[in-house]
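Sequence decides. Our protein:
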Amino acid sequence: SMAVQTVMLAATYFGAEEINWPNEDAKSMGLIISILLIQLIAVAGALLTSKLSARIGNIKALIYINAVWAVICIGAWFVTEPAHFYVTAAFVGLVMGGIQSLSRSTYSKLLPETKDTASFFSFYDVTEKIGIVIGMLLYGAIDQALNSQRYSVVFLTVFFVVGIVLLLRVPKRKTTS
């Protein structure tokens, strides 16, 4: 979640600084278009993710989606032109909508039986906010140290890989007959 939220917040900064826009007007319009593109495609991504999770399960679907996120972060290193940025934005939208809804539903399935789910989701929300702060802090620190947001985006791959490792450690539930 930390890396996803960081990508969402930093995408426009990346687009403004790292993409070769022909002029300032094209940059402004291009960033607006990319944000709209991400939001619209996120709806389709959520629908596709729900079908994937129904077919293979939530944990496996989250693992695959994290892998796609990692590839997107690595691929962002090579994005320099507006057309490439739009394609990347489309892929971000595709996995963004799905990972957000699927991670929350998976979290709810992992909760113990209780009537007080609000406390658990409050904890989820707070940790997500802390993750955003940590993610943006690291993103900015790497950008400042290396003078390029490309390094920051590629570094986010680490968080997705750690997410995959942690998801692989989620114990399988035993069913009783």
Remarks:
- The first helix runs from residue 2 to 18.
